[in-house]
UniProtKB/TrEMBL annotation:
InterPro entries: KH_dom-like_a/b, OsmC/Ohr_fam, OsmC/Ohr_hydroprdx_reductase, OsmC/Ohrsf. Signal peptide: none annotated. SUPFAM superfamilies: OsmC-like. It comes from Larkinella terrae. This is OsmC family peroxiredoxin.
Length: 168
């Protein structure tokens, strides 16, 4: 996609959101159903994914780990955002790889140590790009990708999460 095509697709949306700010507020949803054993079937809208325990917590490894899914969501969002930003500012990306790594101490998840946190202690996001972009353009790509990536911003800013438990 060329920069002009992307801008023509996004221009009417940007105008609408400026004129009607409430129309930009959209609730994204995910839904899952408890599966056999210790699993949860999540409808991604494209396929059904069955999540289960990570092998480090007793899982078989046959189901996806939700921690892996979080990193995959970060990689996917960062990759799409990078592509959109590059297109918008006219930087050609011939190829690229995005990788996320996160450190977990499973003592926290398993309740072995109250001192060990539950969740990722650190997440690292790597971009390896095949491009003729200048150093200044690469810095712009990095800055704008971080700024506009929804998953990156959610993870780095933190967000309030409220839970509700009801009976059927």
């Amino acid at each position: 996609m060329k920069s002009e095509e992307l801008k023509s697709l996004q221009a009417p949306l940007k105008d609408q959101y400026r004129e009607q700010p409430d129309s930009a507020l959209i609730t994204l949803k995910a839904e899952g159903h408890l599966g056999a054993g210790i699993s949860c079937k999540v409808d991604t809208g494209r396929a059904l994914v069955e999540a289960g325990l990570h092998p480090a917590t007793g899982g078989s490894g046959l189901q996806v780990c939700s921690g892996d899914m979080l990193l995959e969501a970060l990689v996917a969002c960062a990759g799409v955002t990078l592509g959109a930003v590059a297109t918008a500012i006219g930087v050609e990306l011939k190829d690229g790889k995005i990788r996320a790594e996160g450190d977990l101490d499973f003592r926290g998840t398993l309740g072995v140590s109250k001192d060990a946190p539950v969740g990722f202690k650190n997440i690292r996001l790597f971009f390896v790009l095949d491009t003729d972009a200048t150093e200044e353009q690469l810095q712009s790509l990095a800055k704008l990708t971080e700024r506009y990536c929804v998953v990156y911003q959610t993870l780095t800013r933190g967000v309030s999460v409220k839970t509700s438990f009801d009976r059927q």
